[in-house]
Amino acid sequence: MPALMLQGLTKRYGGVAVVDELSLEIVPGRCHGLLGPNGAGKTTTLRLALGLIEADAGEIRLLGHRLPHEATIARRRVGVVPQTDSLDPDFTVRENLLVYGRYFGLRRRDIESRIPALLEFAGLAGKADAKVPTLSGGMKRRLTLARALINDPELIVLDEPTTGLDPQARHLVWQGLRRLINQGKTLLLTTHFMDEAERLCDMISIIDRGRIIAEGSPRELITRHIEPHVVEVFGEGLDAWEGCASRLCRRCERAGETLFCYADDPKVVTDALEARAGLRYLHRPANLEDVFLKLTGRNLRD
User: Fold this and answer.
1) Who's near 120: CB < 8 A, 6+ residues apart?
2) Residues linked to residue 62 through DSSP beta bridges, in sequence order
3) In DSSP terms, which residues pair with 190 in a beta bridge?
4) CA 158/CA 160 separation, integer angstroms
5) pLDDT tens across 25-64, in order?
6) 18 by DSSP, 3-state: which?
7) Quick one: CATH architecture of 29-37+74-222?
8) What are the pLDDT digits (tens) for 119-132?
């Protein structure tokens, strides 16, 4: 049975379909990424999947429970890390976890027994008695993650969990999330960090304009949608080089002062570049970000 099943899900605002007949199944014990540009419908999809808003059409089953009718029961088995932290500034770190655990009907002694491991998980072992306003932004984010685990959830929904974290904190969170997956937890992750999605996700759904436009493992998506090699070209003379590049590689894309050359054999491109004074280049393997930009475009979304 899927941890989460969405079938033909539709949600409209002002006559516009923000989520448009979307179908999705999440396999238990895996990390499933939901990627898309701003305004693609990711957060609305998560709110529908948690029974926080009601769909105009479609079916939702969360951990076997039909939503919205059994939303309260289902959410007892779910942990949520929202985009913005909603910690109580008047409480200490420990008190935030204790009060949140009481919302799930947990006994105080059971909550207190879980707190040390959660603080260790979040790298906050020495901050149990600190008030929230004294914490850094990264510490608050990690506390929000620890709070989402207080009820020992089967499914953990993470809406951009590492936004605002420095590289060290991001890696700490990644290690913790991988441990959760190894323990059999199911993760539903939205993120704008493509390297994060590649590291953590077993399966990815790319959503745009309320519809899923591509789905597969990170490696499958890269193999299916993009050429294996990318040569990024920049420097003086790029305009003149652009016409030449289109004859040397399968596909070119211009973004500002950089030309992206997608090729099966990068040596043809790099050999030609060596003879061009003033041009610099970077050769790398294709990645998930290349797939994302190809499918959703390079134009800025607000």
Assistant:
1) none
2) 4, 65
3) 159
4) 6
5) 999 999 999 999 988 999 999 999 999 999 999 999 999 9
6) strand
7) 3-Layer(aba) Sandwich (3.40)
8) 998 889 999 999 99
